[in-house]
Design a protein that fits this description.
The protein has 5 helices and 8 strands. It has 2 domains: 70 residues, 434 Repressor (Amino-terminal Domain); 134 residues, Umud Fragment, subunit A (Ribbon). The chain is α+β, with helices and mostly antiparallel strands. Helix content is 21%, strand content 29%. It is elongated and about 60 Å long. The longest helix has 12 residues.
Length: 213
């Protein structure tokens, strides 16, 4: 087994995953793909390594090269604020979401030492939402950004009814008539592709999915 694959296996076990298939499901990666990465049948890319390092709580440098301190992580956890639940139909009568305020709920996930922990948040996927490959109870992990990268999926706050009501929605930064704009990525044909609209705002860019087993 290649050394990089051995380090991946060690990181997965240290992070508390007793099986490779359980880790793959939690990371929303196909089981055969992850197994190939861990047994050395297929080399994993730097982008794959970034995801594994972040979710298993180890140093990216250590995972890729074996250098540095691997203990920067597997036993280190952070409480990621849960901002709320995604919704396309239910509106909330509340002020604009303040991600700097203390949240009422946290999601405990592994974190890589030295990462910008303060800028992460999570949203939960509720029952009845048909979108992409997410399931009810999944968490979308997002990083706060002021501007979305092209074609990325994001979490946004949408306003309605004269700006009095709000909801959290997934959106994508796409090019429309030569301009980049955020459009809804919904589970219904009626809403999918709808512009975020006046008063809507970008909260963060979706980086990964967390699935409870």
């Amino acid at each position: 087994m290649p050394e990089r694959a051995q380090r991946l296996r060690s990181a997965r076990i240290a992070a508390g995953f007793t099986s490779a298939s359980a880790a793959a499901r939690r990371l929303n990666i196909s089981v055969p793909t992850y197994l190939a990465h861990e047994n050395g049948g297929r080399a994993f890319s730097v982008e794959d390594a970034k995801l594994y390092a972040r979710r298993f709580g180890v140093s990216l440098e250590w995972l890729l090269t074996g250098e540095g301190d691997s203990a920067a992580g597997p036993s280190r956890w952070r409480g990621t604020p849960v901002a709320g639940a995604i919704s396309y139909t239910a509106w909330e009568d509340r002020p604009p979401l303040d991600l700097s305020a203390p949240p009422s709920d946290y999601l405990q996930i592994a974190v890589v030492a030295g990462s910008d922990e303060a800028n992460w948040f999570a949203v939960v996927v509720p029952e009845g939402l048909d979108w992409q490959s997410v399931l009810p109870g999944d968490y979308l992990l997002a990083r706060q950004v002021s501007e979305a990268q092209p074609n990325t999926l994001c979490i946004c706050e949408r306003t309605g009814f004269g700006g009095q009501l709000r909801q959290l929605v997934p959106a994508q930064n796409v090019q429309v008539d030569g301009k980049w704009q955020l459009v809804l990525r919904a589970g219904s044909a009626e809403l999918d592709g709808t512009p975020l609209g006046e008063g809507g705002r970008l909260l963060g860019q979706i980086e990964s999915l967390y699935r409870a087993l």
